């Protein structure tokens, strides 16, 4: 294996994990580590403080460094730093899903021009190997569908809401106390993290550039204990699902939102902070990859794995492995959420008057919506009832028209929630 000289940008949880794992591979020499605070005490036995710098330019402009490992996250200054590194002929290993989702097209194009590679196994699902399997052993397949749980924080919160009947707020606080959720959890609970990941995963799976700006995104903050209870009674679990699929017309449907997932479905059985990815392709059929989607050691496993793959290939040839080079130059034609077709869960607050359920059924019928299940969850003190409807497959735009019409009816007080359904 070729000896590689590496520079690491970022020395938080993941960066520290990468450093520790690399100590077992003497053929990889760490030349410099860029940090924000050079005086911060590092709880690493025998650590050489001289490796640290607070100027990342020392890494990307160092002619001795072969590969830049970026685990700092965010767009700035990572984007400019990696552009400089690529222009200087350095290979890139990154775990930065936001950067790849927003700036990947420019970085990959530049890397192709400079004959260097960008490897990013850790960017989508932490320790789960998914990018390289798609590029290599699954390259004979036409992948047509992805359904995945890509965010451990939201999966942990929804698991506790289901198992313990907690409110969203209490489950979030518990996740923060255990270190699963940040002080500001917006990136996770509003679906941004999962959207970045499904953007990257869909691009590589469908061999077309999927725009992050055209991905429908909805988080879990509106999920109530009553939704969890109703879902459970109907035979479902609520999960934040990142999905992508190639439609018959060749257009791409990519989105992130909560779904009622049938208890019979494999993704319904994925609990706590675990991640899972289901792929459907031809000729392989259905595959599922499950494991730790975050954390120092699982993520370091993928980062160091990329480094070792690079070292092995560079020993054999000066040219990068063809599968590691970006070949997806075509921009995907992505459909809007209104043009998607789904089954739906609708939670409706209605007056406890005769005919309320009939009105709901009539409005659905007028909007091309068939109801498969309808149930009423008792009467509240204000003489209103919660009515839960599960529809057959319907068009999103028809559902939205029906909800608007329901709210114009005197007997419908509120639409408490609308969720899509996966069977």
CATH class membership of the largest domain:
Alpha Beta
Number of self-contained structural domains: 3
Q: Uncertain segments of ≥5 residues (pLDDT<50)?
A: none
Return the CATH topology of the largest domain: Dihydrodipicolinate Reductase, domain 2
Radius of gyration: 24 Å
Estimate the global geometry from the Cα principal axes: elongated
Mean pLDDT level: 94
Kindly, what is the distance between the CA atoms of the first and last residues, rounded to a whole number of angstroms? 47 Å
Just name the CATH architecture of the largest domain: 2-Layer Sandwich
CATH superfamily of the largest domain: Dihydrodipicolinate Reductase, domain 2
Query: How many E strands?
Result: 17
Sheet with the most strands, sense and barrel status: 11 strands, mixed
Secondary-structure-based class equals: alpha/beta
Total of DSSP H or I helical runs spanning 4+ residues: 14
Structural description of this entry:
With 423 residues, the chain is an alpha/beta fold. The chain folds into three domains: 153 residues, Rossmann fold; 161 residues, 2-Layer Sandwich (Dihydrodipicolinate Reductase, domain 2); 85 residues, 2-Layer Sandwich (Alpha-Beta Plaits), CATH 3.30.70. Strand 5, helix 4 and strand 6 form a beta-alpha-beta unit. Strands 7, 8, 9, 10, 11, 12, 13, 14, 15, 16 and 17 form an eleven-stranded mixed sheet that branches. It is elongated and about 80 Å long. Helices cover 35% and strands 27% of the residues. Helix 3 packs parallel to helix 4. It contains 14 helices and 17 strands. The model has no long low-confidence stretch (mean pLDDT 94).
């Amino acid at each position: 294996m070729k000896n590689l000289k590496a520079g690491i940008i970022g020395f938080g949880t993941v960066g520290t994990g990468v450093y520790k794992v690399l100590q077992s591979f003497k053929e990889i020499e760490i030349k410099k580590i860029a940090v924000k605070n050079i005086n911060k005490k590092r709880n690493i036995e025998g650590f050489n403080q001289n490796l640290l710098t607070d100027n990342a330019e020392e890494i990307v402009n160092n002619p001795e460094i072969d590969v830049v490992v970026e685990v700092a996250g965010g767009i700035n200054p990572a984007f400019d730093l990696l552009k400089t590194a690529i222009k200087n002929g350095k290979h890139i290993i990154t775990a930065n899903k936001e950067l790849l989702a927003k700036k990947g097209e420019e970085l990959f194009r530049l890397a192709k021009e400079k004959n260097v590679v960008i490897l990013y196994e850790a960017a989508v699902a932490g320790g789960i190997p998914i990018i390289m399997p798609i590029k290599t052993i699954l390259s004979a397949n036409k992948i047509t569908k992805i359904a995945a749980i890509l965010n451990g924080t939201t999966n942990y919160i929804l698991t506790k809401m289901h198992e313990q009947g907690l409110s969203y707020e209490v489950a979030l606080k518990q996740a923060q106390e255990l270190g699963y959720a940040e002080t500001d959890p917006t990136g996770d609970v509003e679906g941004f993290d999962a959207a970045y990941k499904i953007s990257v995963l869909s691009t590589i799976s469908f061999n077309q550039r999927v725009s992050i700006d055209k991905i429908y995104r909805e988080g879990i903050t509106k999920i109530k204990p009553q939704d969890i209870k109703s879902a459970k009674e109907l035979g479902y679990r609520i999960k934040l699902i990142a999905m992508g699929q190639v439609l018959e017309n060749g257009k791409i449907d990519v989105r992130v939102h909560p779904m009622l997932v049938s208890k019979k479905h494999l993704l319904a059985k994925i609990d706590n902070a675990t991640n899972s990815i289901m792929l459907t392709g031809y000729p392989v059929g259905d595959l599922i990859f499950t494991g730790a989607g975050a954390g120092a050691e699982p993520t370091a496993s993928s980062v160091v794995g990329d480094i070792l793959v690079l070292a092995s290939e560079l020993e054999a040839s000066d040219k990068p492995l063809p599968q590691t080079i970006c070949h997806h130059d075509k921009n995907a034609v992505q459909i809007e959420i209104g043009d998607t077709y789904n089954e739906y869960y609708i939670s409706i607050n209605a007056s406890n008057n005769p005919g309320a359920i009939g009105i709901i059924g009539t409005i659905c019928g007028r909007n091309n919506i068939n109801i498969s299940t309808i149930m009423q969850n008792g009467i509240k003190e204000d003489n209103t009832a919660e009515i839960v409807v599960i529809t057959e497959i319907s068009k999103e735009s028809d559902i939205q028209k029906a909800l608007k019409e329901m709210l114009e009816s005197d007997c419908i007080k509120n639409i408490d929630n609308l969720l899509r359904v996966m069977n």
